[in-house]
Records
---
Amino acid sequence: MKKCVGVLALQGAFREHRQVLEQLGCDVVEVRRTSDLEKVHGLIIPGGESTTIGKLLKIDGIGDKIKELGAKDLPIFGTCAGMILLSKTIIDSDQYSLNLMDTVVERNAFGRQVASFETDLFVPALGSNSLRAVFIRAPYLREVAPNVGILAEYEGKIVFAREGNLLASAFHPELTSDQRVHKYFLDMIDEHWSK
Amino acid sequence: MTDIASLKVKTGLAEMLKGGVIMDVTTPEQAIIAEEAGACAVMALERVPSDIRAEGGVARMADPKIIQSIMAVVSIPVMAKARIGHFVEARILEALGADYIDESEVLTPADDSYHIDKHDFKVPFVCGCRNLGEALRRIGEGAAMIRTKGEPGTGNVVEAVRHMRTVMSEIRALTLMPKEELMAAAKNMGAPYDLVLYIAENGKLPVVNFAAGGIATPADAALMMHLGCDGIFVGSGIFKSGDPRARAKAIVLATTHYKDAKMLAEISKDLGQAMSGIEISTLTDSQRMQERGW
């Protein structure tokens, strides 16, 4: 199956996700309006400013449509701001959430930009080689429900997790050349559509 | 191995700001309005460019208290301006925890020959440019983000358009040149050769490029996005207008939906008075901030 993957293109690093997906042989749709979601087999919510993207999700009912599709098991992958937007609880904030993942997220949890970093992250689900992970004013998951699988932790903090059709990373796999995280998400899409 | 302040981490924040609007603010109240309107970051300063222009005198880094009071009330990144070449102002901003430093021609230059060595800082820098050579000199010095200079505080987009078109057409020209011409091109534009090679091979800047200087309406923002910039800085255009709240929100929407003319028509309605602009030809040479930078 030729996969068609949507990348939410309201604000943030959507172009980088697009490039990785195209390198992996997918058709890519930049999603700005509700109608852009019609044909997609999966959706990536990129890094950016979660408050900005949250406000733009209220336009044209696009956020509601994503909620509806996510609840119907459409595979969705959120990176950084995307992780924040997927989480049901955002600590100390009343900002918009898609309210899909049973997780509690803390924003800017490692500190301001001067504390941003890149590191070698061990992700057992992706094999024995570590992954270079870039964290930029990154969040992490303070708590997750029992049905959420933890894929990676950094210094005891949950930075990569999956709940059924939903995947969330605090880091930015689109900024490095290692494509394993995107391949993992594409496998989730295959799994879902072969059911 | 964990690496803080790598180039990837510095340029990465700018990547996350793409498709967004960065707004000049001078008070915590304005910062909250900007965040509520959907700004992806704010620039904390003491006076917006049009006031700096009107009041004259030496414009310097803002009082740290202003910057801290703005950092305290918003969750989005907070940028701040240092004078060209004033590395001590930059150190102060870094110590305050500013998320980005704008080494800016809007302030009065502190050094008339040299810019800051930006590689030497943990905090990333954005710098202005009028052409590709200037952009590449700043990137060579360590800037992790570039913006056009435009003519700040005028509400007149013509200079930003000129600078964006110049940068884009110079990039296109390099991609068409045979390799033996690139060294002479580097010499002529005063740009580091390795960066000229990068542009020739990749057809784009190695860092994010925003538009700035004179953007006053949603249509201005959409115009700049069409010309190929990655996002928008709005200085005086919001808080010197009749209805900052509505205008800020409209410019955010226009930056996302810049290709959708029907939507632009909707969001351009009822925004009140735009800031009154200045015709560029009425400025004397010493009033042109864009000439600052070397």
---
Amino acid sequence: MNPIVSCTLLITLGLGTTITFASSHWFLAWMGLEINTLAILPLMAQHHHPRATEATLKYFLTQATAASTLLFATTTNAWLNGQWDIQHMTHPLPITLFTIALALKIGLAPLHIWLPEVLQGLDLVTGLIMSTWQKLAPFALLLQIYPANSTLLIMLGLASTLIGGWGGLNQTQLRKILAYSSIAHLGWMILVLQFSPALTLLTLFLYIIMTFSTFLVFHLNNATNINTLATTWTKTPALTALTPLLLLSLGGLPPLSGFMPKWLILQELTKQDLALTATLAALTALLSLYFYLRLSYALALTMFPNNPSGTSPWRLQSPQIMYPLALSITAALTLLPLTPTVTALMMP
Amino acid sequence: MTPTHFAFSAAFILGLAGLAFHRTHLLSALLCLEGMMLSLFIALSLWTLQLDSTNLSASPMLLLAFSACEASTGLALLVATTRTHGTDRLQSLNLLQC
Amino acid sequence: MTYIMSLFLFGLVLGLVAVASNPSPYFAALGLVVVAGLGCGILVGHGGHFLSLILFLIYLGGMLVVFAYSAALAAEPYPESWGSRPVMVYILAYVVGVVMVSGQFWGGWYETSWVPVDELGELSVLRGDSGGVALMYAGGGGMLVISAWVLLLTLFVVLELTRGLSRGALRAV
């Protein structure tokens, strides 16, 4: 793709999200989402092989459906209340419709089928954009709905954590595993959305840091399935030592920063007298932990049969820029001691 | 709920159901999307007309511009998938399952 | 007038049933053309002449022509119209669904709820919708710029998605 065109598309991608952030009127928010969808389509299909085209088509169909359902919900709201402001949703029917539309847009559990397939068809950099930047605009809208439909949100959240763990169990493709991990993390965010929006934002932030570093590590090693992971120690030994920790941080194990959002969310749910929901969510996180552990095992504890010349590529300098990865992987591993500061900042 | 409100809501939900349930051809899925956008256009126009709100009567036209963009992108994807898959049947889009 | 408007609304729903019931694409395109025409009628009945003209020119004249053209290219040897059995089953299911849901609201509808608002108003030179267009050009600069940018972007998107000489059906991936 021509660099000018791809630069234009990336700028427009940013413009769409920014419009959604800045809007207080539903119509403008919808326009931002549409711009976002339109701008990423050529980036997804840039290699033009059949899988990329198919993934683009599936993404287009789901996003167009979700966006028009969103606009239908807001039009219904306007017919019932005469209001177009995002903050003034009061009727339960538009709120439910709107939540379902956004769940389809970000891929929450009963409406998640498209996400693993779409991510499987993309290259890792576009997949990175898809699973981080594309989630921001819908979340900006979800955070602004005040009288949320609480049963629906809890059901969506629990189903997402369960299916996100369950679906990833039998996968050998890294991008599908990452898609299911994304579904599970989004489930945690939705679970706590109505009780503490600030906590949702924190979880989203940490999820973006961790997913960013995971995608970059896989991109660096050119790895798209589990077998390839077993040869990464010949390419980047230091990174191979850090990557299992990163995966366990995604799984939410205690000394790493991925534990912080899960801990705070479980605490908040218990405070709201939802002990059963908290228990179920914690149990479904074990399912996700299983496949993170399997990836770590393949990365760190297996020796792939290799010829002697195959074990030496770590001497070569990688042409890629390493600073963003270094920063994000440090943040993804060591942010847990900041928990008291974060809680003090979030909950005054 | 007035009859007008019911009519366009029913039209939208029918379009959504047609898109969601059984589609043989990609083209008919795109036509269902167009039907949904058409019912939204009618809904927005009737809203501005009934309230006589001059400020918001630009919004149906903006909606129409955006739905034209969506339609043309959909048709471009139709061309692209026909090139890569050789057909526009939705059943043949199964390369990514496993 | 009330009678015609209710007929139009009825036709709108029935037309969407015809589109959604999974016939061959050119029958679906025909159904959508009918729906767009009825939509123009509804808008005129409510006093939105300019919006109706926009719908007719842009939607029916611009977009649906392209769709009908694509449908004609995708011709198939055994087309399924609304008479064939699987389509008939869908039509029946959708019609029964709509009738059942409208039965829920039937009690709340009375004679005057079918009357378009415009019939109760007076004759005036400046209509709301054409005034709104003037207002859009006068004060809606940002929205116009965004829409124009999106239309330009769509041109790039379409070109990027469909371009390429070497991208036929047979080639190395």
